[in-house]
Amino acid sequence: MIRLENVSKTYGSGAHAIQALKHVDLHVPKGSIHGVIGLSGAGKSTLIRCVNLLERPTTGSVQVDGEELTRLSGPSLNQARHQIGMIFQHFNLLSSRSVYDNVALPLELAGMSKSAIQERVLPLLDLTGLADKADKFPAELSGGQKQRVAIARALSSRPKVLLCDEATSALDPQTTGSILELLKEINQQLGLTILLITHEMEVVKTICDRVGLISDGELVEEADVGDFFTAPQTQLGREFLNDFLELEPPGALVERLEAEPSVNTHPVVRLAFGGDAVATPLVSRLARECGVDVSILQAKVESIQDRTLGLMIAELIGNSHDTRAALNYLEAHDLKVEVLGHVQRDA
Amino acid sequence: MSNAMLELILESTLETLYMVGIAGLIAAIAGIPLGVLLYVTRPGQILANPVTQSVLAIVTNVGRSIPFIILMVAIIPFTRLIAGSSIGTNAAIVPLTIAAIPFVARLVEGALNEVPPGLVEAAQSMGATPYQIITKVLLPEARGGIINGMTITVVTLISYSAMAGAVGGGGLGDLGIRYGYNRFDPVVMLITVAILVVMVQGFQSLGDHLVRKADHK
């Protein structure tokens, strides 16, 4: 549905040129929810603005629903934009218009009659839970309600694609949840394709099917959300995941960690396990089958959509032969094992 | 005070309102589009055009730098061409209008500058044409600011119109100078000043009221 091929965007020229996007390829299939995550300044905003050509790519092509937008300009581009809805971090509602008139705006722009507009707007106000707010002005609404108006407005021209530019970043966690739920509902009911950019892993975890990681203008990693949360391929991906899971070894332990094992040390490991491994009574088996004691320092279980992800930081206590056997045992059972370091055995 | 004097005061008040009204109206009709052009031709704006922008900016700035009293005298041939005379109320409207147009334009430009750029971006993402962005987004969103600008313009025009009195333009300024100043009649002077104060207060209150009604912020 959305296809970006070799898209680059450069601001300025010569020595002052800034390359905001570097050879980005992105494909979002019809009906899916695709997230792009990255730190601020990584090029997320530029990327999503290149899809509806609010920013025109310096090179490369952008296709939406088979139409190559990068070939269009003027009226034909405006026409194509009716197929692409967009919502923003700061909602961008017109303060001079009521809720109803804000939702009606795209239809007015398209030249629809008043009665046809009404037939479209009222069901959308119902869908977004704003039926009783039609005559209110944006200043009278909460942040979550404003974003609902923006969503209704973006949907009014019956687009095939919805672009979400940090749509929940200005909202509190609870409101974020309800907006994401609404987006998911729209995706399922209307079969709408959604591309969203965010810096919040929570958003990706909650509604995305696939996720891309953008860094310094490059799409460095792309994966199904379940895979990304269990086994990110890049250092940045792991950092995002660790920040999200807040699973770092305790500070006091970090100070004692040594990079290389010696006679009197035992390993500290971070274990990530998905799927069947979650249900396995792992700790007791390690003790029984390898003769290793496991001291759990931190652990948590996360549900990533239909998958379950377990994470644990643990010391493997035993002699070096047994701990090595334990590591092999874990790897053989499809666990992701990362040895963080080694600590001195307590005397 | 004689009836004749009271009639004269009433007549002068109406003349002032007439001059300010007509000049303000024409200045709005010409100045608002000029202000919009000044804004939308800025770099990065929806109709960015450096050449048009700098020409308009220079014309506006020149218009605004000429002191009104000098402008009034300098354009006498033009005034005569338009109004058929260089003295009288109708003649005074010409320089008042010319002075007010760039004034309005800059105030409108400033009001448009207060519209969050995200709104224009949102309209673009909906496929709005530049004309639609101006009429459906920029002008309605800047309505309060524009009304505020027009209020300032009217108040300024009231004070300018008093200056027009110095060259026989009619109105309260004229009355104040002829009777109050030249004939040393402090009562007439005080009355004209009092009427001007009330007029300015009235327009300011009306303007503030309209801004409150227009703004849903």
UniProtKB/TrEMBL annotation, chain A:
What keyword terms does UniProt attach to this protein? Amino-acid transport, ATP-binding, Cell membrane, Membrane, Nucleotide-binding, Translocase, Transport
Compartments reported by the entry: Cell inner membrane
Q: Name one GO molecular function term.
A: ATP hydrolysis activity
SMART domains to which the protein is assigned, alphabetical:
AAA (SM00382), NIL (SM00930)
CDD domains attached to this UniProt entry: ABC_MetN_methionine_transporter
Primary location: membrane
* The organism's place on the tree of life at top rank: Bacteria
Record's keyword annotation contains Membrane: yes
The entry's cellular-component GO terms read: plasma membrane
Q: Among its keywords, does the record have Cell inner membrane?
A: no
Per its database record, what is this protein's job? Part of the ABC transporter FtsEX involved in cellular division. Important for assembly or stability of the septal ring.
Q: Which PANTHER family match?
A: AMINO ACID IMPORT ATP-BINDING PROTEIN, METHIONINE IMPORT ATP-BINDING PROTEIN METN
Q: What is this protein called in UniProt?
A: Cell division ATP-binding protein FtsE
Source organism (scientific name): Onishia taeanensis
UniProtKB/TrEMBL annotation, chain B:
Organism in which the protein naturally occurs: Onishia taeanensis
What keywords would UniProt list here?
Answer: Cell membrane, Membrane, Transmembrane, Transmembrane helix, Transport
Of the GO CC terms on this record, one is: plasma membrane
Q: Which GO terms describe its biological process?
A: D-methionine transmembrane transport
Looking up InterPro entries in the UniProt record yields: AA_ABC_Transporter_Permease (IPR051322), MetI-like (IPR000515), MetI-like_sf (IPR035906)
Q: What family does the Swiss-Prot or TrEMBL record give for this protein?
A: Belongs to the binding-protein-dependent transport system permease family. CysTW subfamily.
Main location group = membrane
Intracellular or extracellular location(s): Cell membrane
Query: CDD domains given for it?
Result: TM_PBP2
The answer to whether keyword Cell membrane applies is yes
* The name this protein goes by in its record: D-methionine transport system permease protein
Per the record, the coiled-coil ranges are: none
Ranges that cross the membrane: 20-41, 53-76, 82-105, 146-167, 187-207
